Amino acid sequence: MSANIALAETEEYTYTPEVAKRTAAVFDQVYPAISKEEWPDFAPYVDEILRLKKERNAVVLAHNYQTRDIYHCVSDIVGDSLALAQKAVDVEADVIVMAGVHFMAETTKLLNPSKTVLIPDPKAGCSLADSITGEDVRNLRKKYPGVPIVTYVNTSVEVKAESDICCTSGNAVKIVESLGVDRVLLIPDRFLAANVAAETNVEILTWQGECEVHERFTARQVTQLRKAHPNVTVLAHPECPPEVVEAADYSGSTAGMINFVSEQKPAEVALITECSMGDNIASENPDTNFIRSCNLCPHMQRINLMNICESLKTMTHEVTVDPALADRARLAVQRMLDAS
Ligand code: 13P
Ligand code: SF4
Q1: Domain range for residue 168?
Q2: pTM, whole model, 2 decimals?
Q3: Ligand 2 pocket, residues with Cβ under 6 angstroms
Q4: What does the pLDDT look like over 30-55, one tens digit per residue?
Q5: Which of 181, 211, 241 is the last residue of a domain?
Q6: Where does [4Fe-4S] cluster bind (predicted)?
Q7: Of 32, 42, 37, 35, whose CA–CA distance to 8 is shortest?
């Protein structure tokens, strides 16, 4: 099981009897997701983050791909991209720390602009967000006049500003169909687009973007998995290639997968997605055996307890949005939330 840090025991962050006492109630809540052996490494940072959250009137929003220490010990809200956007709107705290990637922090700032939004590592990017620019979208609009542009939230503010409406993996089919047209551009993830196309009669045009984590999965891997584990239930994220989704028993967003496991209680499951997902939910689903067949997202893995702590201490790195783009980008996200 992964927690993405080798935590350094400095004088400042040592597991003293005082730290143990102050964090005992937290440990009771997070055990067995966090083991007794791990706790002395995490507790000094958890202790300081909880103190700083109070001092700064801050909350931590964490994506389902964050590691167990973040997901269970310091986050106030966890979820998929859609849930994080929906919940970001209602945050009343002054400061929001995004334990996730940069586009998620930007979306949070768009939806709750009066708050200070921090990202512990501004280099936490996304291969999908990097695959397309605002100019690319303007060119697509010229090439396909009148075709609505549905943009995955995994994009920059500039790209959102050029789009008609956003979507996430949790609502893409619904958003596409909500437009009431025969043809849409669904960008930039070509695999998400192909998987949506398989579920709708709307013609889907797309872009050549890919998620570097999900594009690596193959149908052969699923076949081998089933050979080795004949009773396994396979869940695949819709950013996977269509042949992987076809070979799976269910496909849905990270929240969709979590709900599937907690509701259907499969005896054995493989989550064809980022590795932290299974780690995060394993303890809540003790009757399910999680078969590890996953890839790590190097961007999500940039966030750790140490830099969350540092972020709250120094109030860095503040995420801002170009005011010239903010209103148009917000409209695209807001339309998605209204249609969800
Ligand atoms: P969801 O949480 O919306 O399924 O997205 C997965 C993802 O890749 C986020 O970076
Ligand atoms: Fe981007 Fe894929 Fe990482 Fe999600 S998992 S942040 S889509 S690279």
Answers
A1: 129-211
A2: 0.95
A3: 101, 126-128, 154, 211-213, 239, 274, 297, 299-300
A4: 999 999 999 999 999 999 999 999 99
A5: 211
A6: 126, 211, 297
A7: 42
